[in-house]
Amino acid sequence: MRGLEVVSYRIWVRRTAALLVGGAMACGSSTPLPPPPPPPPIEQCPAFERDPLREPDLMAWDATERQKVQEKRSDGVVALRMEQQGCMVTARVVDCVGQVAGAASGSPYQFKPYPRSDTLVADSQREAYAKLPLNAASLGGEFGAGRSLRVDYRMVGAYVLPDGVTVGEWKGTDCEQATHYATRVIVGGFARASGQRDAVKGDVGVFGVGAGAGQRQSELRWSTEGNPADCEQAMSKKEESAGCNVPLRLELRAIPGREVETEAPATPSATAQAAPEQPTAPRPAAPDQPAPEQPAPPRPAATAPPAPAQTTATSCPGGMAWIGGGTFQMGSNNGDDDEKPVHTQEVSGFCLDVTEVTVRAYKACSTCSAPSTGRSCNWGVSGRDQHPINCVDWDQAQAYCAAVGKRLPTEAEWEYAARGGSQQLTYPWGSAAPGRLACWDGEGNDLGRGNRQGTCPVASYPAGAFGLRDMAGNVWEWVADWYGPYPQRASKNYAGPSSGTGRVRRGGSWLFDSPSLLRGASRNGLTPAGRGVSLGLRCARTR
Q1: Would you state the pLDDT for residue 288?
Q2: Rounded distance, CA 245 to CA 177, Å?
Q3: Which of 94, 167, 259, 322 would staple 314 via disulfide (CB 3.0–4.6 Å)?
Q4: Nearest Cα to 40, choosing from 370, 401, 316, 402?
């Protein structure tokens, strides 16, 4: 009967593009789970190996932002907004390009060969912050239980601003937000994988720069950008290659008068300082010499420079990202009726799990009751430890978060995080169609429409706003609020109606094929007792 239910469930979803489970699936045993291991210490922010506001490596950055670098580079000088709060470094490409005085329209950058290979290994999120600080929070799901992260990359060239160039004009709708511009864009290809420490460090890799003694092919599941064969050819010929042209590193220069205030990384604890340093491969020097200082984009004389971003000390546990508070327009006029009215919502800063709660994490909860089992449920299935826990009801989700010292996020917090705060993103990654950017079942996904049979391992797809993973797709996520109409006016830290018959779930899932349900503003109500194969959770925490 359960198999027929799942098939009917999928058919109904495709006909209606919405799902409301009216009852609970068969409940699993309420026998307590095994005692959890001791909680890991909250990791301190380390010193960066590279200044992330001057020479950020981009391998943990959102793929959409990397693509924007290429698009803007073709039109002029690339402008970015860089922000740092403690060890949390974020960046976005702004709608603004500089035009080089006296030059023809188009790209002012000149290609110079720069053949280099390197491997980066991190055994903890603390090391990830040190080695890949830009969006390092998105890597939280790669560590734990003896797991390490590895990145292999090949640099083939750098697009460099010529010496002595001056920017005659800045054009775009977002120039006031720019804090830095790119003097160099170093390109190539990279592959990223995580797994058990020995396997990660001994794997042959994808680009042929790893150890891999005696191996003929990799044994890890790699996420790759750039074609390894094209990179090999481009390196040997020292020429540009469309197949090996992924931005890997930027060299940035601050725009005078636009510097963003930053908070220095916290000093590691005595324990962390006493720990032996992990050997790392030498990092290649940047090509050529820095370009001369460029003038700031012009502003109208009556307009004062934008105020520096305010930062506060943050201390989120490992695996959580700090979501700085702010104001945004909650809801959408382009979605379902329950997304209206659009209203101003103020949200205080909070910590949010980078990934959805995994099967492995849920197993460690000694006071949590077992989820339902059956087809497409992950509980009790071998090899699913890194998949999100699913088939849990609202009470189980709330109980898990409480057991680990956290809570369910409010609906306003969840939408604020998914939409990049005041950026008002359509999807967590921007405005591009979901395609291969999420674990879902619609047109353009990596398995083909209608072929997905279950959840994906967490963090299998590019990071979105704030470095969060899978805020769209994989599993719907329970939030704290009762489901009901939005308020008619502005509010602060909105927590939903005081009562109701359904709880809110957010984010869409692997089972759905409608892009609309993956939008950050999309919302849905479900009876709190509902347990579905496409329903899970992530937790929040007030600092």
Answers
A1: 38
A2: 27
A3: 322
A4: 316
